Amino acid sequence: MKLLINTLVRPYYIRNAGFLGVIFYLAFGFMRPTDHYALMAAILTSPFLFVLTTLLWALYTLRATVFVRQLISEPPHRFLLSARLLPPTIRWSGWVLVAVLLLLPVEGYASWMISHGVIHQLWVANGAIVGTVLALVGLSAGAIDHRIRHPYPTRTIRVPRPQRPVPYVLFFPGFLLRHRPVALLLTKTASLGLLVGVCRLYPTDDYDQRLLLICLMMSLLTHAPTCRACYEFETTWLRLLPNLPFSRTTRLTRYALTYALLWLPELPLLLYNRPTEITLTYVVLLWFTGLAWLLLFHARSYRADFNPDRWMQVLLLGFLTCLMLIMFGVPVWIWLAIGVSGCLLHWRMRP
Amino acid sequence: MLLTIDNLRKAYHDTPIITIPSLALNPGTYWFRGINGSGKSTLLRTLAGMLPFEGSITLDGQYEVNRHPVPYRLRVNYAEAEPLYPDFLSAHDIIRFVGKAKQATSEQIASLAERLGVDTYWHKPTGTYSSGMMKKVALLMAFLGQPALILLDEPLTTIDDRAAQTLLALIQEHQARGVSFGLASHQDVGQTELVIDRVFLVENGEVY
Questions:
Q1: Would the pLDDT of A313 be above 70?
Q2: For B102, which of A159, A161, A245 is closest by C-beta distance?
Q3: Which of A43, A243, A269, B144 has its CB 3.0 to 4.6 Å from that of B104, i.e. a possible disulfide?
Q4: ipTM of the complex
């Protein structure tokens, strides 16, 4: 059991620190406890809202389960495939434990809702919540067991193959499309949704430029696992890379092009939804700031002394610090300068 | 002098893996032998400029790996023991990318691919390759460009007899051209037709 926690559960929380940080911030930064109680009362009494909540929980379950299934298929974790030799009862108890731990955020909020339902004696709704959570845990455990019994999927996403050799900048995006499509889809959906939401929902003045910056930081947090995935991709699938005679500048340029490609969908979306008071220059600066910070995250992931356990703390503390500085009025060009100089500094320190 | 190693220390989380106070290698072919876990692969990867380390490794008396990483890596090639490549890419994609970096010509790539039999699965995605097919791709890439030193980690494992014979012929041809080799193997490379200039025993991270 300890092995499963260390190999499957811990990596999930470490690699999704940014995503979970954004969810936590949205849930408890923007909303007060009274807002939550009002929301719970609405969910517990409205079937439509209940189904919507179930869908959100199912989406989270899908993300966590797909992550673990992909992890099991990767070469460093293939030893876990021998678990299929264990008796089903022992094997299933392990997967149920993993699923329960993966779904802790859902279970936590569900428990809060149940306690609210008990106070208001909403027994049917409480029963439905318990049933939903149990079903999600069961489905997640079943999906993990299925991957253990069928480790090499016969159907995967077919990446279109051009006649010409695939250029290096497409190696990592190709890997994401083929091996982590759900994670990529959810990351982009969350990031784009946040940016469009802030652009469209809020009226614009000086204050809202800061709001756009905060939203950019949240959008970057959702991309943090992608930067770590790039490191894992290269150290697992492209181990020869450090032997290739590229200068630091060439390597950095290649990464910049790769991340520019991944970050590209945000640019037209920002331009299209740009509030009239926000200048074009500001949007372009904002996009380049995002790119610079992605490269900073990437450079940080490549440090020899990188400690994945501390990654979550660094991200959350960094986000809170950024939040305060943005509220104090630090402008976008300063954030761009911090991103670029931080990235270059990390890059110079690389062996 | 081909390679000069001074105060080399490679450690993982404070656990020393390789320690070489001083070692100078003339051009030639060297066999690093040792049991599993003795540090052979780490040594080769360090010599290939792929791992951070303390100390210095200098090629041809002028290219120190950390100070001149580009010319050093251009002249030191490496093939890993158990290669793995992105399963959606073909041998063509990977070899072209590495070949361009190592300044190999199209003719050299085509010739090596034909001799090692990689041309028969040139455009197929690597996800469909056996471990032997994958190994031949890695071996091919170790000969790309104009290397002064080629490091081969367990070169004879997983490949078939025909490929092994081709590999030995390739090594001999390159030896005749003055290219040096560092072979890491727990197998007895000495029983092949290869001329080995010196055998090093790698034991507990030290080289004798």
A1: yes
A2: A245
A3: B144
A4: 0.93
